[in-house]
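Q: Given only this backbone (961 positions), what sequence would you predict?
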């Protein structure tokens, strides 16, 4: 550390007292120390090797890797709700440095995505220009808060040297497959070798050498971890792009623009995350995450045990997954999702004899009925399709399958309550045991066969039933054929027996199903990572060689996708990249021995999730141009260790809203990279902490329009804006709600340290809390009192003395040290501040000069929370080193425990005496002391004692006879 003393050049603050701690003095102190930290590299975390290698003594310490969730650099800048988590991780990082750890704490920017592209469409400004401007503004705001980030490690996902590696990871997935037997990803070349040697049979038979290039690509596409397929997507013609599920409202319209959204099949890139479903589920148990987040991931993955049942149909089979194979004898019809790939194949040309009128939807042929119904279903969101509506809709496709248990023909329908995204996209309908199937059967006049004996008195005549009967602890009935009988069995035993029969007869097998679907990875947008993929004249996808990375975004004149008639579901996207003809059609030599050839580039881009799936790794080794990350550096910061069997970041702080998207995607990428040997950590984030939200009051006028919160007046318990009464409701803080308060405002009025203390003192970190600007002054006064306890406001001289503290002051100090240390370790920042305040108030009330032996530990205790004033006071106290790497104070146990505590003695519930007793006194000794006290003897007045209740050492309650 430098010997320079920035405190010595502190300018005088203009106030009544020339050296009072004011907002102006705070601003000067804070700016000066921020410059000092930058110049000295105070927060640089050394690596064990590489260009960021540093102090061996620091590297030898235990490490702590502390992270915030990737921020998006909004043009609106920060409001005071945004820094809550950033301040919390900064306090944690500072505390860990002071307790002997080498701490990696930095921050980058997740900068691709829709907001910058929308702004570009509106203004014509290149997304990079606006995004980099926003990053610069956000960096300045965060710096002003005194966050101790290692700036050498910061980056943005839009940096070509960053997304080069995002593209590289995509290619590793494109060139990998998941080996179910080995339960890990392996290079695709190993699968090719198995097909070529005959070790693994080709689907449909034949030899590898006999396949064309396109046919080989199709086979491998069924195994690759990154693959293109015709996938059902949310197509929004009015926006000209495919939307993620979270961008579609519950009524099936786009969140942006309120346009209709249709289900449509488009060629899209996908990630085979389903291959990892079981591992993603199992490994949750080893993570230190909130149980609520684990539950959300478990539900999203959705593991269920059951059986696959094959229903023969026209020489082929339609497979269904059911968790109740014991009800197979009650399956009287089948339903396919409208998007099911077999619908077109099995849809008849004419209605079979006996087709009921209500099955046809009023159409002359099955093909017409299916086409009309598909269009109707495409206009609904998945939420609408799953809604428990009484009116069930669907059409018969003109074909019958065969129930493998009964041998009976069962009509096949399509209906919108069956989704392609769950199971196989087909169900065996058991109307007696499922309410939706029951309602559908009633609407379409289909049989309802009782196969579980009711215990509610309704009987087995389903014609009299008003609803389905679902039971998991009843007996099976009406379920027998010449080969198997389930009659009389309980459900669990019936499941096992019918599953064994399915496997023995080749009509199904026991299986585990997951709700999790493969990850749709394409976007029809400009501002995202380009896919490092080109297509040859046969449409076969080829990976770009690593030497051609990064594939950078080209310049385009128009950033917006082409829009269409919002109601025209038959249109197809036209992406911004497809308009750059010179970029799309290229001649390349891919190094595959075929020489230069003409190719067409992929014109979709990756979703904004891509860059945030692996960014923790880039923080470790940010300037490595040869490898994703150096293995030794990755092991040092993220490798498995005691209590962390899968490795990962030590502390990850962010909002709970990312439970099943970012967090699940990042876990998937980590497992693939682990399987392929690039990292030692199979999980990205070992400990997860979800901070709450800072809320603010939203004021609305009679029209429901938000009005500026700062201009609202309160009179007699009511609120008024420009004389008109307005409503008030606690909600989010934001520019659109006109209730945002910027950190710049608070820093200007009170200083950054005050803002930091206030946000940490508002309540438990994981609980949402309302912002109250008027309450900020409380923490400002704490810092002013702390300042006065060290510095004379008139002379600016340090007033501490080198005398021994009084006994009560020593006890107050060591209790505070013990409590604050525990609170900071447990991220209970609000109670830590309360204990610091209590000690500071004790010193103020004691009066006189503060002993150095108390002042210095107090400054060190507050340093993680209010680092600027701590640095200033530490330097004024005569030290030349920074508080950042100073040891956190350690409590003396002899002073932590009180010599005596006050015990309250009650008679008939009323306090009659107070005793000063040893904190370690036993219940028996305390009872004797209470009964011997003359005040208690007088209160009993000769009455005997019926009962004595003792809560040592603080309470005795005596019940007279």
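A: Predicted residues:
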């Amino acid at each position: 550390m430098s010997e320079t003393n920035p405190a010595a050049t502190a300018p005088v603050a203009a106030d009544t007292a020339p050296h009072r701690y004011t907002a102006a003095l705070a601003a000067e102190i804070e700016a000066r120390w921020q410059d000092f930290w930058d110049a000295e590299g105070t927060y640089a975390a050394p690596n064990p090797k590489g260009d960021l290698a540093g102090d061996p003594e620091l590297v030898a310490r235990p490490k702590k890797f502390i992270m915030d969730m990737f921020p998006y650099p909004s043009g609106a800048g920060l409001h005071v709700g945004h820094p809550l988590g950033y301040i919390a991780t900064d306090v944690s990082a500072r505390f860990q440095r002071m307790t002997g750890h080498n701490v990696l704490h930095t921050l980058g920017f997740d900068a691709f995505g829709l907001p910058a592209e929308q702004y570009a469409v509106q203004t014509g400004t290149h997304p990079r220009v606006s995004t980099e401007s926003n990053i610069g503004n956000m960096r300045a705001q965060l710096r002003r808060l005194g966050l101790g980030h290692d700036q050498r490690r910061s980056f943005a996902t839009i940096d070509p040297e960053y997304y080069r590696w995002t593209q590289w990871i995509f290619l590793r997935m494109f060139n990998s497959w998941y080996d179910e037997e080995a339960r890990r990803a392996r290079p695709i070349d190993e699968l090719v070798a198995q097909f070529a040697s005959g070790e693994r049979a080709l689907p449909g038979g034949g030899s590898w050498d006999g396949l064309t290039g396109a046919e080989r690509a199709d086979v491998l596409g069924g195994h690759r971890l990154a693959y293109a397929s015709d996938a059902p997507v949310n197509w929004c013609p009015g926006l000209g792009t495919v939307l993620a599920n979270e961008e579609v409202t519950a009524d099936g319209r786009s969140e942006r623009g309120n346009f209709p959204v249709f289900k449509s099949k488009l060629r899209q890139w996908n990630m085979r995350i389903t291959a990892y479903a079981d591992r993603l589920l199992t490994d949750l148990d080893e993570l230190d995450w909130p149980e609520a987040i684990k539950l959300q991931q478990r539900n999203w993955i959705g593991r269920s045990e059951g059986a696959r049942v094959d229903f023969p149909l026209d020489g082929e089979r339609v497979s269904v997954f059911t968790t109740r194979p014991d009800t197979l004898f009650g399956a009287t019809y089948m339903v396919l999702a409208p998007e099911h790939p077999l619908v077109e194949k099995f849809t008849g040309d004419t209605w079979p004899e006996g087709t009921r009128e209500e099955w046809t939807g009023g159409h002359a042929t099955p093909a017409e009925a299916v086409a009309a119904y598909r269009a109707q279903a495409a206009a609904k969101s998945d939420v609408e399709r799953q809604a428990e509506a009484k009116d069930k809709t669907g059409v018969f496709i003109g074909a019958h399958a065969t129930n493998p248990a009964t041998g009976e023909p069962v009509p096949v329908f399509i209906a919108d309550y069956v989704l392609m995204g769950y199971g196989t996209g087909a169900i065996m309908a058991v109307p007696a045991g499922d309410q939706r199937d029951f309602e559908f059967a009633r609407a379409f006049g289909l049989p309802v066969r009782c196969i579980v004996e009711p215990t509610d008195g309704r009987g087995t005549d389903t014609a009299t039933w008003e609803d389905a009967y679902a039971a998991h602890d009843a007996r099976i009935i009406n379920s027998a054929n010449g080969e198997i009988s389930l009659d009389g069995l309980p459900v669990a035993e019936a499941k096992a027996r019918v599953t064994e029969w399915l496997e023995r007869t080749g009509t199904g097998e026991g299986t585990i199903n997951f709700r999790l679907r493969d990850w749709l990875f394409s976007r029809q947008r400009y501002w995202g990572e380009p896919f490092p993929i080109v297509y040859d004249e046969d449409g076969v996808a080829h990976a770009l060689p690593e030497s051609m990375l990064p594939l950078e975004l080209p310049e385009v004149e128009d950033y917006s996708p082409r829009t269409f008639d919002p109601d025209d579901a038959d249109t197809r996207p036209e992406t911004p990249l497809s308009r750059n003809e010179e970029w799309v059609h290229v001649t390349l030599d891919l190094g595959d021995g075929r020489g230069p050839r003409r190719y067409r580039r992929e014109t979709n881009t990756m979703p904004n999730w891509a860059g945030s799936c692996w960014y923790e790794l880039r923080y470790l080794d940010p300037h490595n141009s040869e490898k994703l990350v150096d293995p030794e550096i990755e092991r040092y910061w993220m490798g498995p260790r005691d209590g962390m069997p899968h490795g990962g970041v030590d502390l990850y702080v962010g909002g709970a809203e990312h439970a099943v998207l970012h967090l699940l995607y990042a876990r998937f990428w980590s497992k693939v990279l682990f399987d392929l040997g690039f990292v030692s950590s199979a999980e990205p984030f070992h400990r997860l902490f979800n901070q709450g939200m800072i809320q603010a009051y939203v004021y609305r006028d009679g029209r429901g329009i938000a009005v500026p919160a700062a201009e609202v007046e309160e009179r007699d318990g009511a609120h008024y804006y420009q004389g008109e009464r307005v409503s008030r409701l606690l909600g989010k803080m934001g520019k659109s709600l006109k209730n945002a308060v910027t950190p710049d405002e608070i820093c200007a009025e009170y200083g950054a340290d005050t803002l930091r203390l206030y946000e940490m003192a508002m309540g438990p970190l994981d609980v949402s809390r309302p912002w109250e600007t008027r309450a900020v002054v409380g923490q400002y006064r704490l810092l002013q009192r702390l300042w006065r306890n060290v510095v004379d406001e008139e002379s600016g001289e340090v007033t501490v003395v080198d005398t021994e503290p009084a006994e009560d002051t020593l006890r107050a100090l060591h209790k505070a040290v013990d409590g604050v240390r525990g609170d900071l370790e447990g991220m209970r920042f609000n109670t830590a501040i309360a204990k610091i305040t209590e000690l500071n108030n004790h010193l103020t009330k004691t009066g006189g000069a503060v002993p150095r032996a108390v002042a210095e530990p107090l400054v060190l205790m507050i340093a993680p929370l209010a680092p600027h004033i701590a640095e200033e006071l530490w330097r004024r106290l005569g030290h030349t080193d920074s508080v950042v790497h100073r040891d956190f104070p350690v409590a003396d146990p002899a002073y932590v425990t009180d010599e005596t505590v006050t015990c309250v003695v009650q008679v008939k519930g009323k306090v009659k005496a107070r005793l000063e007793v040893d904190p370690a006194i036993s219940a028996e000794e305390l009872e004797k002391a209470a009964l011997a006290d003359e005040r208690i003897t007088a209160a009993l007045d000769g009455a005997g004692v019926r009962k004595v209740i003792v809560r040592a050492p603080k309470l005795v309650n005596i019940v007279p006879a």
